[in-house]
Specification:
Layout lengths: L5 E2 L13 E3 L2 E3 L2 E3 L7 E5 L2 E6 L10 H4 L1 E7 L3 E3 L5 E12 L10 E8 L5 E7 L4 E7 L11 E6 L11 E11 L2 E3 L20 E9 L16 E12 L1 E2 L1
Length: 244
């Protein structure tokens, strides 16, 4: 029998609990980068956090890892991954694109992340726009490296609906904590599962929420700002099968 889910944060508001969440601080060759768009508006309460950026304004010309995230928050706590039982991380997520084209996810999407940046530099995420839903697997090109070359892989099921304006429970990831396999589910449908073979599974992981673009820098210039924005809501961050 599966153990029940535990809620990470009740999200009672009026702000995010600083004991549970902190702005991301990304290690880059040029120093630390904190991706919080100045145009972001935050609302917390009734088990929900909403972030609205009417018009993206944050960009970096030098590093893709700093140019893409427009808003990124990490849990302050990490979760132990057992070698003999699966771990599940889940949240309800809704997305509304503002301007731009929601069919082109590179111009604006929201995500729920499970990651480890100290050793593996790996990120697994469920992400999407108003009209599309994806699973994402990244090896980030952060300071300190990690085995293997950096990459970003995005996988889409052609039969999944977009995240739209209403919540879609649950967006989740299941880590079987076996070497070389991490299985990602989406909205309780195995059709969108994906396996990342050869992936190092760390002893611990954290969760995060973010708003992104994924437009590559060209000729030393960011292309991520085109008047577009995005609004996203995350509700009921929950975990199961992990050690506190």
């Amino acid at each position: 029998m599966d153990t029940p889910f535990a809620t990470y944060d009740e999200l009672s508001g009026p702000d995010l609990d600083a004991a549970l969440w902190s702005p991301a601080r990304l290690p880059l060759p040029s120093g630390e980068h904190v991706p919080l768009d100045p145009n972001a508006k935050l609302a917390v309460g009734e088990s929900e956090v909403r972030v609205t950026i009417p018009r993206f304004s944050l960009s970096r010309d030098e590093f893709q890892s700093a140019d893409s995230p427009k808003y990124l928050t990490f849990s302050t706590r990490d979760f132990g991954l057992s070698p003999d039982r699966p771990a599940t991380f889940t949240v309800d997520l809704a997305v509304e694109n503002i301007g731009g084209d929601p069919e082109d996810f590179r111009r604006g999407m929201a995500a729920f992340h499970v990651f480890e940046l100290e050793v593996s530099k790996r990120v697994f995420a469920v992400c999407g726009t108003s009209t599309r839903v994806f699973a994402l697997h990244e090896h980030l090109p952060l300071r300190g490296g990690g085995a293997g070359e950096p990459f970003q892989h995005v996988v889409e099921s052609p039969y999944e609906r977009g995240l739209g304006r209403r919540f879609h429970p649950p967006s989740h990831m299941r880590d079987h904590a076996r070497p070389g396999q991490l299985d990602r589910g989406l909205e309780r449908r195995r059709s969108h599962g994906d396996e990342a073979h050869g992936t190092f599974i760390p002893e611990r992981a954290r969760i995060g929420s973010g708003i992104w673009t994924m437009l590559p820098i060209r000729d030393g210039r960011s292309r991520s700002l085109d008047g577009q924005g995005l609004s996203a809501q995350w509700r009921r961050f929950r975990v199961r099968g992990v050690d506190a």
